[in-house]
Every structure is written in structure tokens, then in C-alpha cells.
From TrEMBL:
The keyword Nucleotide-binding does not apply. Belongs to the phosphohexose mutase family. InterPro entries: A-D-PHexomutase_a/b/a-I, A-D-PHexomutase_a/b/a-I/II/III, A-D-PHexomutase_a/b/a-II, A-D-PHexomutase_a/b/a-III, A-D-PHexomutase_C, A-D-PHexomutase_C_sf, A-D-PHexomutase_CS, Alpha-D-phosphohexomutase_SF. GO terms for molecular function: isomerase activity. Its EC number is 5.4.2.-. CDD domains: PGM2. It comes from Lysobacter korlensis. Residues 85-221, 248-345, 358-473 form the Alpha-D-phosphohexomutase alpha/beta/alpha domain. It holds the Pfam family PGM_PMM_II. This is Phospho-sugar mutase. Keywords: Isomerase, Magnesium, Metal-binding, Phosphoprotein. Its cofactor is Mg(2+).
Length: 589
């Protein structure tokens, strides 16, 4: 099956009509009313076109409370209708609810129609693959998208059920689609959902980047000036069979040789959609089925056992630790809810469990990729890539193996575009071990590669920690940490960044600051970004940036040591990071 082969007849409709004219009249009249009245008018117009009973009821109650003079309701109305979600990290992401600043069926309809207009302006016969996870309304948003794409003349294919994000990203390339949409909020809070966009063709199945995001946003805003009930829909979309899933599983299972020794492994899907696909991959690769965290293995949009479905968050892996201790396991693997990220935990000598950092897993998998490239001889030339907030150790590994190294802005929309890419990672548990198959982070492929490494180490009488010590001996010891400041008022983040730009600290944690790189207007080969990088005495660094998906200001701390034994190097690097972390917390207090 190829999405370049034929398409169904599109539905009829132009989007013009009495409701579109009424919407235009509302826009024309907007300048003559007060801001409060304008918000009310927008909310009432939204209510009229909302097809969702739940959000209609929610907005009706809110409007009644506003009419009664409830100040909290007035503030809530402003929060929902005073702005709108815009394309950020590869698409839309936000809390479920009524209004343009929330995720809902009206906003998704506007986004789908805007994306369709963008695609039809670029190609005579565009196609799109649509996937979804198991979050609240993911399937509804995906079907709405399929109907609107088909209605706009785009050949639309819907994946057959809730599946991991990497399957959708693979499918866009495998089927030669013009674009892909994945309805997911990945590891965000339970009440969030999102709309992630990929492009085929010259973009090779990667997530959208600037200026494409702005071009799509412009089309969405044009659609938002009308009424979504006027948008043409069609049920002439296709539902894919299992061919895409089967091929993803076959190619992922073939990544690494079958293990020569058995491993006792615990796996959790964190209430997401990873398990059914991961189980088939693990079995096909020869690892057998892992022991599962039963309470978290099936999809559940309420995420009942975790306060935050992100394997990086404290407590998220507690049930995995308990299951592993009971089973006498040797390794824990955890996918986030859409399975594009991977967390790994190993036992220490006392039997306690330690989650490896994203930088540690990136080191292990990046080194493995570099060794494969070296073994391939001239055919193995290529590039290792990571985001600039990830550990510098990958650059050292690339240098030692004669490979290219690329440092990018945060996000796989940038990492996946590195030239001649062989491996990419970001510290937020994202790894791309098979760029020929998928151009996005893939937590299932990464799990297979990590399983193979652990099995090889066990066969040689060694452990994952032994491998990390070997890395410290060969490349130097690299330590890292993160500090996240979560805010309730988003305006606090730009205030803090402005303060740090205007009053640069002389030292952080007692370590002198020797240089500051401000990315506001771009820096070196990087485009403009709200990011500050502090270089400190001894070569350590602190990077500050707002999160692209959460209301957080994030600080990334890195230090290295090449003096002494592996243990002495690791201790020295960790001590520097500890001092810098204390300093960053004081700086952001």
C-alpha cells in the first residue's frame, strides 16, 4: 500500500455560506465592542458550532456563571478565549476543554482544515496518515481529522486502532505520505491532548519546523474566522490494515542480534499504548515477553497509578521497582504513554533500583551506534546528533570514532534533520537508533537496542554500570542534572529570563561564570531561541530555557572530568554538578 496510489472522491463544499457570512460580520463588529463583550461573543459563537456534548455543557455553565458576575468565571473565560493554542513543538498541545486555548473538537477541526489547505496548496494530490493514542478524545480527534481531510480533497488513511507514535512516524515514510498527524500529548498530564504533525517528501517524515509551522498556523487562523460547521466533511477516508504495524515490528525486531543469554526484564507502559506493539517486537527479536507491571500495562486515559505519566517524574516508576524487586529482575524498561520515550533502571549492589538519566542511556546507545559505524568501515560514516542541552559526551564519542557530530536546538524535529544521521538523542529520554526507519524518537526501537546491549554485557560477565565506568575511562566522566521551575503564571518565565539577561551572575554555585551565550537573536549556526548558556570555569555549563510543552523554566547542568581513575573522574564531575545545582536553585529562587 502506498499513499501515492489513488485516492477516494472528496466530499463537496466550499466553506462559503450564511454561517461564514455571519462569522465575518462578527469579526467586522469586533472593533466596536469592549474586550469583555468580545470574549462573550466569541464564546457564544464557539458554543454554537461545538459538536461535543461535554464541552458544550461545560461552556454553557461557564457562561451562566459569567452572567451571574462570578469573577473566577470571568477569569476562566479570559483564559480560554483571550488567546489560542498555536503550533509549538511540532504541533498543538494543551488541556482539554472548550475554547481556542484548549484542546477540543472545534480547535481540531480548525487545525485539520488549515493543515489540509496547506497540503493542497503544495500538491495536486496530497495524502495523509493519521494515528492516535488512548488519551481522552484521541480517537474522536483523529476521526474528525480524517473526515475533514477527505472533505478537503486529501487522501486520508486512519491507523486501525490506538498505536504508539513511532508507528505513525514510521508509516509516513513507509507509505510515502505527504504528511502525518498523531493525536497525542505524549507524557503530559492526564487532562492534556495534542496534535503532532509530520511532513513527507523532502522532509522525509520528520516533524514540522519553522517556517512551515507558521504557514500552517496562518491557514488555521483563516479557517478560524469562519464556522467549522461549514467545513466540508467526507466519510471517504480509509482505515489501514495491520500492514504498517507488521512492517514496523519486523524492522524493529531486526535491529539487533538475538540474545545468547536470557534476561529477566520488567516492562511498564505507564497506562499508555506501548505494550501490544512492544510485546510483539520483543518476542520477534528473541527476547521473549518481559514481566509486566500489571497495574499499568493496559491503556487508561485516567492514568490512575501516577500523578504525572512521565517516567522522569519522581514516583512514576515505583510500581516498576516493586515488581522488579519481587521478580529478581535485572533490568527495567518503561515507555511513556505514546511510547516514543524510554526510561531504563538498573539494580545496584544493594539491590536498590536506579533510573538511568537520559544522558546515560544516550551515552550507552550512542556508543553502541558508533561502534556499529566503525565496524561497517567506509560504509559506516555518518553523524551522531543530540540537542544542545544534552550531554557533551556524544561529541566526544563521535570524535573518538571518526564520526561527524551535530548539536541542534531541542526537539527531534531538529535532531532528526542532522545530515547523514546514524544516531540521535535528547536528555528527555528520547532516542533515535534507526534513522532509516523512522525520523523521530522511538522508545520501542531504543528498548530493543538496550536489551541487546544488556544481554551482551551479561554474556561477558559485565553489567550496565560496568559499561558506564568503561566510558568514563575512555571518554572522561560526564555528569549532568536538571532543575525545573514549574509556574502557575506563564508570564513569570519571561520575567526571569529578562532578569538573568540584564543581571548576569558572576558565579553559579561558587563556580565563576566565564562567558554567556544569548540565543535571542540566534547564535553561531542556531536560529533565534529563548535560551541562555552559561560557561563556567573548568568547562562546565548551565543552560536555561523555557519548556516547549509544559509551564516550566528548565535548567540543564553539565560537568566533566578527565583526571584520575574512572571512579575519581565520576566523583569529581558529580561534585561539580551538585554545586552548580545548588547555585541554580538559589538563582531561580
Amino acid at each position: 500500500m502506498s499513499l501515492r496510489d489513488g485516492r477516494d472522491d472528496a466530499g463537496a463544499g466550499t466553506g462559503d455560506g450564511p454561517r461564514s457570512e455571519a462569522a465575518a460580520e462578527r469579526v467586522a463588529a469586533a472593533d466596536t465592542v469592549s474586550p469583555a463583550d468580545s470574549l462573550l461573543a466569541d464564546a457564544r459563537a464557539w458554543l454554537e458550532q461545538d459538536p461535543d456534548d461535554a464541552t458544550r455543557a461545560e461552556l454553557s455553565v461557564l457562561l451562566a456563571e459569567v452572567a451571574a458576575g462570578d469573577p473566577d468565571a470571568v477569569s476562566e473565560l479570559a483564559a480560554r478565549f483571550g488567546s489560542r493554542l498555536t503550533f509549538g513543538t511540532a504541533g498543538l498541545r494543551g488541556e482539554l476543554g472548550a475554547g481556542p486555548n484548549r484542546m477540543n473538537r472545534v480547535l481540531v477541526a480548525q487545525a485539520a482544515a488549515g493543515l489540509a489547505a496547506f497540503l493542497t496548496s503544495r500538491e495536486a494530490e496530497p495524502s495523509i496518515l493519521i494515528g492516535y493514542d488512548a488519551r481522552t478524545n484521541s480517537d474522536v480527534f483523529a476521526r474528525d481529522t480524517a473526515e475533514l481531510m477527505a472533505g478537503a480533497g486529501v487522501r486520508a488513511v486512519l491507523l486501525p486502532r490506538a498505536l504508539p507514535t513511532p508507528v505513525l512516524a514510521f508509516g509516513v515514510r513507509h507509505l510515502g505520505a505527504s504528511a502525518g498527524v498523531m493525536v497525542t500529548a505524549s507524557h503530559n498530564p492526564p487532562r492534556d491532548n495534542g496534535y503532532k504533525v509530520y511532513l513527507g517528501g523532502v522532509d522525509d517524515g520528520a516533524q514540522i519546523v519553522s517556517p512551515t509551522d507558521a504557514e500552517i498556523q496562518s491557514e488555521i487562523l483563516r479557517v478560524a474566522g469562519g464556522d467549522t460547521r461549514d467545513l466540508p466533511r467526507s466519510d471517504g477516508y480509509e482505515v489501514a490494515g495491520d500492514e504498517v504495524v507488521d512492517e514496523y515490528i519486523r524492522r524493529t525486531a531486526a535491529l539487533s542480534p538475538a540474545p545468547t543469554v536470557p534476561l529477566t526484564v520488567v516492562y511498564t507502559a505507564l497506562h499508555g499504548v506501548g505494550w501490544q506493539t512492544a510485546r510483539r517486537v520483543f518476542t520477534a527479536a528473541g527476547f521473549g515477553e518481559p514481566i509486566v507491571v500489571a497495574q499499568q500495562i493496559e491503556p487508561d486515559a485516567a492514568f490512575p497509578t501516577v500523578s504525572f505519566p512521565n517516567p522522569e517524574e519522581p514516583g512514576a516508576l515505583d510500581l516498576s521497582f516493586a515488581t522488579a524487586a519481587e521478580a529478581g529482575a535485572e533490568l527495567i524498561l518503561a515507555n511513556d504513554p505514546d511510547a516514543d520515550r524510554l526510561a531504563v533502571a538498573v539494580p545496584d549492589v544493594a539491590g536498590r533500583w536506579r533510573r538511568l538519566s537520559g544522558n546515560e542511556v544516550g551515552l550507552l546507545l550512542g556508543w553502541r551506534a558508533a561502534e556499529r559505524a566503525t565496524a561497517a568501515g567506509p560504509d559506516g560514516a555518518g553523524t551522531l546528533a543530540c540537542s544542545l542541552v544534552s550531554s557533551p559526551v556524544l561529541g566526544r564519542i563521535a570524535e573518538a570514532h571518526g564520526l561527524g557530530f551535530a548539536e541542534t536546538l531541542t526537539g527531534f524535529k531538529w535532531i532528526s534533520r542532522a545530515p547523514s544521521l546514524r544516531f540521535g538523542f535528547e536528555e528527555a529520554l528520547g532516542y533515535l537508533v534507526d534513522p532509516e526507519k523512522v525520523r523521530d524518537k522511538d522508545g520501542i526501537s531504543a528498548a530493543v537496542d538496550l536489551l541487546a546491549l544488556a544481554a551482551e554485557l551479561k554474556a561477558a560477565g559485565r553489567s550496565v554500570d560496568d559499561r558506564l565506568r568503561e566510558a568514563a575511562e575512555r571518554f572522561g566522566a560526564y555528569a549532568s542534572s536538571q532543575v525545573s521551575l514549574r509556574v502557575s503564571d506563564l508570564a513569570e518565565i519571561p520575567r526571569l529570563m529578562t532578569k538573568l539577561r540584564s543581571a548576569v551572575p558572576d558565579a553559579i554555585g561558587g563556580v565563576p561564570v566565564v562567558r554567556v551565550d544569548d540565543f535571542t537573536d540566534g547564535f553561531d549556526h542556531f536560529p533565534a531561541s529563548d535560551l541562555l548558556r552559561f560557561w563556567l570555569d573548568g568547562g562546565s555549563r548551565v543552560i536555561l530555557r523555557p519548556s516547549g510543552t509544559e509551564p516550566k523554566l528548565k535548567a540543564y547542568i553539565d560537568a566533566a572530568s578527565t583526571d584520575g581513575t574512572a571512579e575519581e573522574r565520576m566523583s569529581a564531575a558529580a561534585a561539580t554538578v551538585d554545586a552548580l545545582e545548588r547555585g541554580v536553585r538559589e538563582l531561580l529562587a
